[in-house]
UniProtKB/TrEMBL annotation:
Domain BTB, chain residue ranges per copy: 168-227
Gene3D superfamilies: Potassium Channel Kv1.1, Chain A (3.30.710.10)
Protein's name in the database: BTB/POZ domain-containing protein
Record GO biological process: protein ubiquitination
Source species, domain of life: Eukaryota
Cited SMART domains: BTB (SM00225)
Organism of provenance: Hibiscus syriacus (Rose of Sharon)
Amino acid sequence: MALPRMTHSAYRVETIARLAQWRIDDLPSSTYRKSDAFKIGYWNWHLAVEKNRALYVKLYPEFSNVTRENPPIASFIIQVVCSAGDRKSFTHPEITDKQLKKNDDFVWPVEAPLTGTYIIDVEFLDLKTASSKGGEPCSIWTEGFTQNQPNSVVHACLGHMLTQGIHMDIVINASNGSIGAHRAVLSARSPVFHSMFSHNLQEKELSTINIADMSIEACRAFLCFIYGNVKHEEFLPHRLALLRAADKYDISDLKEACHESLLEDIDTQNVFERLQTAVLYQLPKLKSSCLQYLVKFGKIYDILDDFSTFMQFAERELIVDIFNEVLNTGKGSQDSTNGKQQS
């Protein structure tokens, strides 16, 4: 008996942010299948399935110099979702800080009858590498933001002026505190600040800027970015406030840095907030990624109650965008099915 011909798409793993999904159609008994490589973090990964009495699911990094020298220490949630009917799912208990180096370091026997089409869904919560100095493993995502610094010496000097309060001539009043800065630096980085200090406005006369919608912690991160020495731990928790400030004061590189960072960790807890943010600040990549995460990757089924609440208050244009995404995804799936039948 001839085996069914497999198309390239049968091995492809789709990824978005920190989520990976492998769609498997009609896997016969006594069959082994290995996915194409997909990249999350520093590593290329593979999923593999073997179907006997149970379905055995493997997740492992591709063997390489990177894997040999810095094997990932992974935290993730993995589940198998039946794509038909009520989308019954089987979820493995959360894996925390497990080093994955060989192809049998994580094997999950799914003791349930699975037929038809199902999806293997892996959401990476964290990826760490061992410290070269022998300390605690370090997350690759907590050290992920590096500000573009074409002249690090100059930025170091500017940062020193900020942290040491050297010749400051302007005070920024945040919602819960104040911090000093330099008019020349602010003017050079923002046309809005430049306009403030070039005309007889209150900010010029009183040498103060009031930013009542920003905490002192977010304001400090804002200034550190402007001065070129922001750290990841300062940037990450204040991305939304920094995005708002970037839009308000027309600082394009800060807006783009926030945009790129918000793309990296979309999940079920923040996807609706990210979607609204994308619409408000006209961030097309973030909007598209959120819609794909919800519809193409099927995460909308995991948060149906939140989705219903969101839809009650969403703008009409956004509702139309969501339904268009549903239609386009459905059309793409149907075209794929028709193509397989013809082959």
